């Protein structure tokens, strides 16, 4: 029996496992790196062991350190989480050799699954459909093809190659990213990604839990999942589940996992892989099945039998989104920094019993969490369950739109737009959804008047904060001045560039006039600012109330509450129209040093992985100069034009921050 369990992972997955452990009476042990000292998963555990260092290879992926931590803390079992360790046969064997219970598939099975080519061969021999596999580039019969790593999951290293001229470089890039061998298979366009979660025990029982639709992806990694799939009818569900059971038995699998398939528009499907982890999207399965998948996983790890005779019925519909610290508008670049506020409305908790509709949050962060560059950018998963798909999508979109997420760039607005998109609502999904519907990348706060009102609310909240800091001003109306012709103004760097906000209040404290207008950055210190524009076409607004954190406006007879959270010189503004971050600009800024036009700066924080040039080398426009590694991905830095590398101030392995100089390129 499991008495005390160490979770060899961090963030939301560690918290999720701990939540079940508390319910069933198992003591918990967390591990943490230097930067995770005050992380939520550390605080919630019964015991915690420090792993010196910050990088995953020195901490959360260090087998010897994790085994030693479990032994020091008195744990008699280890849960691998959902990362690389969950698929590592050597780590599983080390846990077993140390005399502890391993909450995962047997090491021998993991060794088989680590070879994707051998896995596909065994599954094909069991008469489950698979796509042809090519290990030699010369064998590829046609294009497009998909390049995939022979080991590992999670979408890392996958690339589409559409012609022979780019095949060699794509294979080399994938090998560098995953650190191992790769293979090719035909690329199936407009396909859906469907997976069947399963639970198998040592006695030979295998139970599928319906299916999950995982087709909305970026970089071949899922960002929205749901169960059941809108494309799967009862007959197809039976076929998929039958194929999943056959694959599981062919591979000798025991534990919790997911069998993944590609599904085309004609209803044909092909086995992709068996992922030997709990899966980040297990929450939607829990919502529609009513079972705690972590509890079942631990039950099987203790040698128990699957506690149900067959597949549980699917009840209602669940949709999950992955909220990630990344910028969809700029090639999904990961974002780092401090999460000043993270608040989702109307949350039920980790595990919500059915059949009551509601929201569930699985989060690895809280207010004040530091988002670094060493780990996956996912902050949290938000799940909605309702009797129907339309209700679940509407509920989830509304909750996301009202979420306060301050301090780091995220994909929140994109997720809201996808959930509200007519194609998503119609169930018209495949892995190319985001490529086809570029409109979902637009900011959620798209209305011109909505942006202007957010700027006005930020200025009013700023004035209220200054009054609160200087009590002598409290007797005067907000924005009131002794000279009526002079207005209260502030200049912000907004979503479309610098803007000036101006307003006048009368002696009764009523808004006498206001405006928001674009400002040329070179005019920020000119005396002309602060004067109301001749034509003021802004809607009529009445200020109902205004304090430092909340401004209530009556806009042409409609009342609207706007929340303002100021951190330093940045105001995070949340309203029913959406959210925006506004950085206040000094009217007389100090001159900043200008980087040379030929300077190449880091687009994100990361570690320099490869440098392919030397000072004095001539390069072509678009030539790859170096790569950065951040949040498990490789990011290339190309030459913007032809020239000569005159300076290269970084070395492989060096950690750089956003805006740091990487190279200087003198144009020819």
Automatic annotation (TrEMBL):
Keywords carried by this UniProt record: ATP-binding, Biotin, Ligase, Nucleotide-binding
Q: What CDD domains does its record include?
A: biotinyl_domain
Query: Mind telling me which PROSITE patterns this protein's record contains?
Result: ATP_GRASP (PS50975), BC (PS50979), BIOTIN (PS00188), BIOTINYL_LIPOYL (PS50968), CPSASE_1 (PS00866)
> Where is the Lipoyl-binding domain positioned along the sequence?
585-666
* InterPro entries noted in UniProt: ATP-grasp (IPR011761), BC-like_N (IPR005481), Biotin_BS (IPR001882), Biotin_carboxylase_complex (IPR050856), Biotin_carboxylation_dom (IPR011764), Biotin_COase_C (IPR005482), Biotin_lipoyl (IPR000089), CPAse_ATP-bd (IPR005479)
Biotin carboxylation domain ranges (all copies): 1-439
List, separated by semicolons, the cofactors it needs.
Answer: biotin
Kindly give the Gene3D superfamilies that the UniProt entry links to this protein: 2.40.50.100, ATP-grasp fold, B domain
Specify the ATP-grasp domain's residue ranges: 115-302
On the tree of life, the source organism's domain of life is Bacteria
Q: Which PANTHER family does the entry link to?
A: BIOTIN CARBOXYLASE, CARBOXYLASE:PYRUVATE/ACETYL-COA/PROPIONYL-COA CARBOXYLASE
What protein name applies here?
Answer: Biotin carboxylase N-terminal domain-containing protein
Q: Which organism is it from?
A: Actinoplanes sichuanensis
